[in-house]
Amino acid sequence: MDSINQLAKPEFWLCLTTLIYFLMNGAQIFETLVFVPKWTASPPDNFKLLLDGPGTSLKSFWIIFHSIHEVTFILAIISCWNMIPIRNYLLLLFVIHFAVRIWTVFYFAAKIITFQKIAQTADYVSNLSSKTATWQRLNYLRVAIFIAISLGLIPLCIELLKQGN
């Protein structure tokens, strides 16, 4: 019964979503510093690294990771709903997070799919080096925004933990 009560506590969901966010940031930083430079180094030759099967497609990993995180983030908001300042700050962070997720799906994922198709067909695409360099630069910004959002969750966790004592 006590463990069921723990699951209803706002600090549980907020701290869990913050932890998952930081784990996700770690994976994003690793991918940005290790994997992205490999496939962007020599387009289109290295695009094979993006393919499912022979490559290192991270599509399933990110879909699962983001899905879990979205659920915990929403549960954190729901569990903090009656704490108006915390709720409002969480909603702001979630709106920013969601905007970056939309950017991710419609720009980053869409470009990766395009790069995967190029790897499969070997079609010539003009300005490919420029396109991959732009993707890489914008990815630095995207990862920085995600890190900033997760850092924004820390004061909320601290506040909730203080209130719980």
Please explain how this structure is put together.
The chain has 165 residues and is mainly α. It is built from 5 helices and no strands. It has helices at 2-7, 10-40, 59-79, 84-121, 128-164. Helix 3 (59-79) packs antiparallel against helix 4 (84-121). The protein is elongated, with a radius of gyration of 19 Å.
Question: What shape does the CA trace take?
Answer: elongated
Amino-to-carboxy terminus distance: 20 Å
Radius of gyration: 19 Å
What's the order of the H and E elements?
Answer: HHHHH
| Total strand segments | 0
Helix segment tally: 5
What is the subunit arrangement here?
A: single chain
Q: List unreliable stretches of 5+ residues.
A: none
The whole-number mean of residue pLDDT values reads 90
Main structural class: mainly alpha
**Helicity range:** over 70%
| Beta content | under 5%
Biggest sheet overview: none
